[in-house]
Amino acid sequence: MHSMMQGYIRYVDAVNLRIGRIVMYGIFVLMGILIWSSISKTFFLPSLWTLEMAQFTMVAYYILGGPYSIQLGSNVRMDLLYGEWSLRKKAWFDLLTVFFLIFYLCVLLYGAISSTAYSLGYWGGDPLSFFGGLITGGEEIGRLERSSSAWRPYLWPIKSIMILGMFLMLLQCISELFKDVLRLKGEKI
Question: What family is it from (predicted)?
Answer without folding.
Answer: Belongs to the TRAP transporter small permease family.
